[in-house]
Specification:
With about 240 residues, the protein is of the alpha/beta class. It has helices spanning about 40-50, 70-80, 90-100, 105-120, 130-165, 180-185, 200-210, 215-230; strands at about 5-15, 20-25, 30-35, 60-65, 85-90. The chain has two domains: about 5-130, Nucleotidyltransferase, domain 5 (2-Layer Sandwich); about 160-230. This is Transposase.
Length: about 240
Amino acid sequence: MYDKTKFIFVGLDLHKEQHTAVIMDCFNEKLGEITFQNKPSKFSKLITKSKKYCTDGKEIIFALENSYGYGRALAAWLIEKGYLVKDVNPALSYAYRKSVPQYKKNDSYDAQCVARVAINELNTLPDAMPEDMYWTLSQLVNRRANLKTHHIRLKNQLHEQICIAYPSYKQFFQDIGRPTALYFWEHYPSPRFLRNKSVEELAEELIPVSHNQFSRRKCQKILDAVKADGDTTREY
């Protein structure tokens, strides 16, 4: 259990480019405020400002709302300097904000609410632990998820285009993203590029691209399906 009278509390409202900090005592009285840029070269300003209120040997507790987002760099810096950093669930600070009638959002009051959460919920708040390994793994997982989503979106867009030019395309390319299929769409975006193309000529192109997985019979199937579709050519 913490003795709150031995601490001052610094609540931070975190943003991509700058942070706002409000300094309070254990009686919820505001002592000071500072806004500084979100980069390590400016973090020392927060310490200098906060230490002005460390009378009678008081220590500092920093409270960051979601210390794993925009405040991650600051949280890591503070922890490395030996300071106690608490992670505040945004739901808690949101409840404090909404407790004021006709609340109008601003960085200063948001930071003050984070500090109030730290004061009143000090013994239950978890310590911030922005470990580099977990952050890096999280970034890799998010990047992979974004690439997968983008890949699916691109394939869906390709489906939309192909189904107009080649209504029967699924008869010869079930997976439109395979190397042979991508080669075909690039070189034959419209059936008009296949005019006067013989089975032998098409096979001579596609079989090497497919590493001999394609066949002359499959090439014949493409030409037959295109012919059966009729003329899909449009001016644009």
